[in-house]
Structure formats: C-alpha cells, structure tokens
Amino acid sequence: MLSYFMLPLVLLFINSSGNSVAGSKQKSPESQTGTLQKMIVADGSVTMDLDLNRLNGISSVAARPATLHFAAAANSFFPILVFNVLLRGPEPGSIALVPQVQAIPALPAPLAASLKQLVVEKLPSDAAFDLAVRDSNTGFTFFNIEGHQYDYDGKAQLLSITGGRLLVSKEFAESLGRPSDAGAVAGEISIGATMQPVEITQLDENGDVKSAILPALNQPGVGTVPGPDVIIGELIGLVQSQTGSVGGRVGLALGTDACNKGTIDVDWFALPSNDHPFIPQNVYRRSGGADNTQRFEQIGQSWGKHAFTAASSNTCGFGCNGVGGSHLGSGCSDAYGAGLNGSQTGIGSRAWVNPFTG
C-alpha cells in the first residue's frame, strides 16, 4: 500500500575595493574538530545615515544629515558560517529592509521610489565590493559599501556590521544626471542582526562530517512578521485533469489557499509582470514496511502556477485588512482550485524562477 503526498511551495518574486577591506574581528580556529553552523537572519535593524546635500548635488561645507531606519525582515537569507562559536565569514545572500520611518521628501526620486524594496546584498567574492544596497525587484544598485567591519557575539548569536561607507554607485549617479558623483561617500550604514542556525554540522578531527541537522526556523507570532510572508494555509482538492495516461503516468493538480502572514501587502500582479507568487507542486509517496513509513520518495513535480489576482478572504484567521486585486492584503488569503492550478494556460517552467532572488 502506498500513501501519496503533494506539497506545494510558494516562491516570491525580494569585496571591498581599494584600501577598504570588509574584515572580521575574529580568527578561524586551527582545529577542524567541532561544530559548523550556517546561520541566517532571525531579525534585526539597519540604519543608514545619509548626507542629503551630497545626494542632491548641493555643494555645501555643512552636511544635511538624514537617518533612515529599517527592520531586517525575518528569516532573510544572509548566511554566515560560524565554527565553534567563531565567525568564519559571510556567504552571498541578502537582507530585506522594511522601512520604519516616514518618507523623507528630500530623498532623490529613484531612492524614494525603491524605499520599500531595498536589500543589503552580500556580493560574490570576485565582485569589486563586498556589500551593496539594491532594489530587490530591479537589481538597481544605489550604493556600494566599503570599509565595514564584521563582528559576531557567539553567546548572543548577534552579528554586527559597522563602519560601512555608502558610495554612490555608477548607475545611481548616472540616473541623477551627475555621473561624476560615482564613488562619492553619501553616508554610512550599520547593521545589527540576531542570527539563527539553518544547518548544524558536527565535524571530526579530519574535518569529515559526523552528523548534520536542519533545525526549524523561529516562527514569529501572527502579525509580527516584517514585510510580506506568504504561506499555504489550506489544501483544497486534488484532481486528475486529463483522462488516461502517457507512458504510464498521469497528471495531477492540487488546490491551494495562500495566506499572507506578514504585515505588508504582497504584490500580486499578473503576467507579463514577474511581481507575483509562483506556486509549484511536488508529489511524494511514503511506502515500505508494515506501516508504510520506511521510505519517503519524490515521484513527481509540476510546473508552477503564476498567481494573477488576489482575493481578500480570511482562511487562516489572521485578520484580513480587506486588500485584494493586485495585492494580497496583510492577513488575507487567496484560493486557487485544483483545476485552476493545473490549467495549462496559467503555468510555466520552474527554470524561469530563481528561488532566492525571484
């Protein structure tokens, strides 16, 4: 006897140069025996201290300071490696920024327009800079970051990035009509984040893996998740859309009811925009032994359903704010039946989607 499971996923479409080195205050231990942890952001805060005169091309001896405060979105994939409680270093990833202040009228228009979708991104090791501030939707770089210092408190699991200088990027300078401003220092950035492990590996004296676990992430309470947070709240039906089979295989589709657990409305724009959730499905079977629990195997996977219009129901009981249409409101839900999820005109290849960047 075989037991079958279909598990849906929802994917959302969010080296220092010169003499400035992004360094760590902690050194790697010589011994290979111990615990290696990959950690990501649980929560935190980001502060940008900007010089508005510099950003607006005003020549003045006196700076015009403005401070932007952001929350670091929960579970942001900005991974660091920690070995025996000491920081080994960061890996490519990003921290989504959730604004905590009112808009500042004097901000340059391109930056003001992207304020709700900024990320701090850790760039690959061969890039000219270690970190950058970008628009998560377009990839537009506003600032490159240099001169920053990493510090990690292993006991408190706190990561600090301080002393980072915000350099106006070439493309930002050109968009402002002042290409000569590229590389100008526009302010400073500091980051403080509580980290949580997503992978814990025990190594022996030869550096070989003895064991590894993937701990569950900390789940904030309902209504406290900064930014958008789409989950599958309910499964609502299973259908075989076409009769018969091809090569002994049949096509199945599962209905899904998506809920926004976050405090921010989720973009839900139809194609050709790519700013909407993408809902693929996998099929698993559990079999073997007297109680069918010896094996758990993947036996199929679907293309993905492109979300196109959001309802404003309250399936998950979070308390819908009533927003629907091109956005799924905070606390709201949107149901797609099995037939709709399996419709050939509304699905597309998984290869179109990067699960980390959209």
For the structure shown, list the relevant keywords:
four-stranded antiparallel beta sheet; 358 residues; eight-stranded antiparallel beta barrel; mainly beta; 2 domains
Count of runs of 4 or more consecutive helical residues: 4
Rg over C-alpha atoms, rounded to the nearest angstrom: 23 Å
SS strand fraction: 35-45%
Which stretches are poorly predicted, pLDDT < 50 over at least 5 residues?
Answer: 13-22, 24-29
Q: Cα distance, first to last residue?
A: 39 Å
Percent range for helical residues?
under 10%
Structural class: mainly beta
Average pLDDT number: 85
Question: Biggest sheet, strands in spatial order?
Answer: 3-4-7-8-9-10-12-13
Main sheet makeup: 8 strands, antiparallel, barrel
Task: Give the overall shape, derived from the CA principal axes.
Answer: globular
Order of SSEs, N→C?
Answer: EEEHEEEEHEEEEEHEEEEEEEEEHE
In total, how many beta strands? 22
Number of domains: 2
Task: Describe what this molecule looks like in 3D.
The chain is mainly beta and 358 residues long. The protein has two domains: 3-12 and 222-352, no CATH class; 31-213. Helices cover 5% and strands 44% of the residues. It is built from four helices and 22 strands. The protein has helices at 52-55, 109-113, 170-175, 338-341; strands at 3-8, 23-24, 34-51, 65-72, 80-83, 86-90, 93-99, 118-122, 131-135, 141-146, 149-153, 158-168, 185-203, 209-213, 230-240, 252-260, 266-267, 278-287, 295-306, 327-328, 333-336, 347-348. The strands form four sheets. The protein has an eight-stranded antiparallel β-barrel with strand order 3-4-7-8-9-10-12-13. A four-stranded antiparallel β-sheet has the order 1-18-19-22, with no helix packed on it. The longest helix has 6 residues, at 170-175. The chain is globular and about 75 Å long. Mean pLDDT is 85; it is low at 13-22 and 24-29.
